Amino acid sequence: MIETGPLGPEDRAAWETLARGYKTFYRTEVPAEAYEATWRRLRDGTEVRAVAARAEGSLVGIAHYLFHSTAWTADSCYLQDLYVDEAARGRGVARALIERVAGAARERGAARLYWTTQEGNATARALYDKVAGFHGFIRYDYPLA
Description:
- Helix content is 37%, strand content 23%.
- With 145 residues, it is of the alpha+beta class.
- It has a single domain (2-130), classed as 3-Layer(aba) Sandwich (Aminopeptidase), CATH 3.40.630.
């Protein structure tokens, strides 16, 4: 059975293992101190929020999300990071995390919940195609540095 809820202080090490797995999957290097800073922001819960998924008492998945205003509608909820431990995949963990974030978005009165993934992430996209709609948008990143 998968249980979702907030991260607790005791989850710090397990969270970082999952966060590092996420960053490795997307080939993104993050300095060690950034994990501590992100952990503090997540625990603060005012800017960026987190949801944890547990199976048999162990942390097996994480989701990071945030709310932001938009010009045309009520707030939107952006599911920024979603990662499930490889050993726990295929057991409904990602779906449970998405549903938990969707509940938070509904509670907040957000107009939408959305996320991005890489085009070639076929495993994740198979789930996303079942639980959400793809409307053809493509993301571009303009370099600011």
